Amino acid sequence: MQINLNGKSVLLGVTGSISAYKACDLARLFVKAGAQVHIVMTPSAERFVSALTFEALTRNPVLTEKTESWSSDLNHIEMGKKCDAFIIAPASANTINKLSKGIADNILTQTALAYAGPMLVAPAANTQMLKNNYTVGSLKMLGVNDYTIIEPQKKLLACGDVGSGALAEPSEIFFETAKTLLKEDFWEDRRIVVTGGGTREKIDEVRYLSNFSSGKMAKSLCLSLYLKGADVCYLTTMGNTGLPKSIYTIDVDTTEELLDYTQDAIRVAKKGKMSKPSMNATDRHLIQKEPYLFMVAAVSDFTPKFPQEGKLKKSMIGESWNIELKQTPDILSSLDKMDIKTVAFKAEMDEKNGLNSAKELLEKKRVDAVCYNLLSNSESFGTTDNEITFITKEKQTALGKSDKLTLSDKILTEAKALLNE
Prior knowledge:
By secondary structure, the protein is α/β, with parallel strands linked by helices. The chain is 33% helix and 22% strand. The chain has an 8-stranded mixed sheet with strand order 12-11-8-13-16-17-18-19, with helices on both faces. Strands 2-1-3-4-5 form a 5-stranded parallel sheet, sandwiched between helices. Strands 6-7 form a two-stranded antiparallel ribbon.
């Protein structure tokens, strides 16, 4: 899933930390996504990674104490004016404490003090340095001043201690920065429930009935929603590899489990996410956003009537095996869809009747929209692209064929029209 940051510009600040080399990987991720990347380094950072390395990666001059120029825009005032977000990664404890006090005694802190856009900080330091009361207070102060703090990892640190302090993975920093660049008012803080993957119906402890669904469409939709600022709850049989860790994921297997957890997730989503907890109940109600359900999961129609304990041996079964099946619950029909916009997904292989079958879901399952996908055969599953027709009672819109992340953006554009906010 390739995120598109074309037309965006990122300012990456690098401080004196052993994790400075990871800033190279982070810069690569931004460049690969199409963003313009500009670098500012503290003198201490240059002890770990050279400015030349970043120039080679970004194809842009690096702002340092020695390169600052007032005959061009390579200075601590002009550099920030052309950038859409400023991310400091790694941010040492020293820099964190300076930022919170407004101290500007090096080229990076001067640039930060002069910057007027969104700021993100990814701490990297010894555990005790981060747990120190001064640093804890500084991080709280930065949060109050609308800095986004990207939490460090807990692991074996370079100093030999084990604890929280390792720089977050570059991919996680990239995701969080991309969200800052791409978030939309409509989706920001809106609670969304997404289901994905094919359910697995247990035959015995090692065998199950399922389908060819890869879960890639659901993952792409989750990522698109996350980047737009939504509060996503993802229920899946396929795990969340490749997605931001901050997306709340619930692992499920069977149709029964998916139904139970989806019902719970919808109940939570309807409570709304309040952006200002200190507001009174009346004011909170005013900012509550109606949630959405995207039912992307490929749900099994049948499940074994008598699932077996343990592993059934081939010698016990014989030459043929007749498994008695029963119907699984109809999830979409069972859910309480009042006060939540519901988008169903329908995959068909019947070119003649598939579209009409998808349209019938609007009334039969009482959903607000259907994403219809015509498949050729089993090889159509697991591909990187897809083709969707977005259907409502009023119209049907062909979204064309494209990669699944781009297609997810198109789906969300159509889904916005379900609400007149």
